[in-house]
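Title: Comparing notes on inverse folding

I've been comparing how different people in this forum approach sequence design from structure. To keep things fair, I'm posting one structure and asking everyone to reply with a full sequence. Here's the target:
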């Protein structure tokens, strides 16, 4: 929280700049689940008035990243097992469909990019920087979504992107999971290279199932 700072963008309204700043802080765990979002404190920290803070908090509430608690005000939404399962159930189905379609439609150039993304993610794990690893992981999966060639599918995945990033970040923060991520990415790439629809779908489902199991364990330890 002490490192929270706002990066001004001359093309965006101040409320949107504050919104992006707070959202990133929540997604990366800099603002912790259950932490109160006090307007005066945040305004002082970011060097802005309370108005854009209030507007940004309202926008975050609409995204499900902030909840309003009676007599307490706004606080960062907790990662609950129910919310986790709801999001990952949908993402599991979408990713399985995407890779099945990609088995039929992926180009040689996209396969090359996927292999490069797989290696880049492996290199990213050596940094032990969760933000860098998460970005590389997103890039890997985005290539598969794009290769599916279905705009509606892409839109549905993008709608889940912010919530998915939050869960992915929690998973990636634990360095013990990095080897598993690398191994599962390789399995996903190899099954897609062979254009084996059943094997590819199972590989992405396993990838998400393992994330869910680890994050549920973390939730239980914190409660």
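Reply #1:
Here's my take.
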């Amino acid at each position: 929280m002490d490192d929270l700072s706002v990066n001004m963008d001359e093309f965006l309204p101040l409320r949107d700049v504050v919104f992006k700043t707070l959202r990133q802080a929540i997604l990366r765990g800099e603002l912790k689940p259950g932490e109160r979002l006090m307007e005066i404190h945040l305004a002082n920290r970011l060097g802005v008035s309370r108005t854009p803070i209030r507007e940004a908090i309202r926008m975050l509430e609409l995204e499900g990243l902030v909840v309003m608690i009676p007599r307490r005000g706004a606080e960062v939404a907790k990662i609950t097992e129910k919310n986790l399962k709801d999001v990952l159930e949908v993402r599991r189905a979408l990713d399985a469909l995407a890779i099945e379609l990609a088995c039929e439609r992926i180009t040689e150039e996209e396969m090359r990019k996927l292999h490069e993304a797989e290696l880049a993610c492996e290199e990213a794990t050596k940094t032990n920087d969760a933000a860098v690893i998460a970005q590389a992981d997103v890039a890997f999966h985005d290539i598969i979504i794009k290769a599916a060639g279905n705009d509606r599918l892409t839109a549905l995945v993008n709608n889940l992107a912010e919530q998915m990033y939050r869960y992915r970040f929690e998973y990636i923060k634990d360095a013990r999971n990095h080897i598993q991520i690398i191994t599962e990415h390789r399995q996903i790439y190899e099954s897609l290279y062979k254009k084996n629809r059943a094997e590819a779908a199972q590989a992405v489902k396993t990838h998400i199932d393992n994330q869910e199991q680890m994050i549920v364990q973390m939730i239980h330890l914190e409660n």
